């Protein structure tokens, strides 16, 4: 991966995160990393983007804190809702 491609991917990943955070109404989403971990963002208050935009801080429901560098974000997507059986 070239440095330019890496920078472009980082910018896209952060833009996706910020777009989902600002969505009205907010829908929970997941952030997947290049290391294979997935983090759920159930509410906007569970995620903070650093001032420089190089890291995201994700609070876990169990009180944990994940710090993910933007270049480690491989995928960002809204969580699919489980439909109730009729």
Total domains? 1
Number of DSSP strands?
6
Major sheet: order of its strands? 2-1-6
Uncertain ranges: none
**Nearest-angstrom radius of gyration?**
14 Å
End-to-end C-alpha gap: 48 Å
**What structural class results from the helix and strand content?**
alpha+beta
Helix content: 10-25%
Quaternary arrangement of the chains shown? Answer: single chain
User: What is the average of the pLDDT values?
Assistant: 86
CATH architecture heading: Roll
Note the run of SSEs as H and E.
Answer: HEEEEEE
Sheet-strand content, in percent, reads 25-35%
- Global morphology: globular
- Return the CATH topology: SH3 type barrels
Largest sheet properties: 3 strands, antiparallel
What is the CATH class?
Answer: Mainly Beta
Strand-helix topology:
Elements: H1 3-22, E1 29-33, E2 38-41, E3 47-49, E4 55-59, E5 65-69, E6 73-78
Antiparallel strand pairs: 1-2, 1-6, 3-4, 4-5
Task: Please explain how this structure is put together.
By secondary structure, the protein is an alpha+beta fold. The protein has one domain (3-78): SH3 type barrels, CATH 2.30.30. Helix content is 23%, strand content 33%. It contains 1 helix and 6 strands; from the N terminus they run αββββββ. The strands form 2 sheets. It has a 3-stranded antiparallel sheet, with helices on one face. A 3-stranded antiparallel sheet has the order 3-4-5, with helices on one face. β3 (47-49) and β4 form a beta hairpin.
